[in-house]
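Q: How would the structure tokens look for this protein?
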Amino acid sequence: MRASQSPRSRSLYAALAEAAEDPIVRRVLSRVASTRVKYLEACYRDLGFTQPRAEAKAVLAYAAYRGLLQLAHEAPAVLPTDWSSYSAVVREALGPVRHAKRRPGRRA
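A: Here is the predicted structure in token form.
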């Protein structure tokens, strides 16, 4: 599973971030980020979160992901060495909590 592996220190995201001042690149990055956050929001809604909570968790999840990529670029030495336990921390922090109510007719 790619999400539980260390990101490469030099990634496409780092190159795109460097080019983000270009108006075309900025528009594309904005569209991609918006699409990804909306997808995550829908996932959290499917888990039973209210719209405001799903939106907040989606933004947090995407920000954490992008921040991890930035760290891989700027300071790879601070990244975890044990990715299997790190992914458990991420699931705990960003995953569903017992308080979320499933919407009727939705499967886990």
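DSSP finds four helices and no strands in the chain.

The first helix runs from residue 12 to 18.

Upvote if useful.
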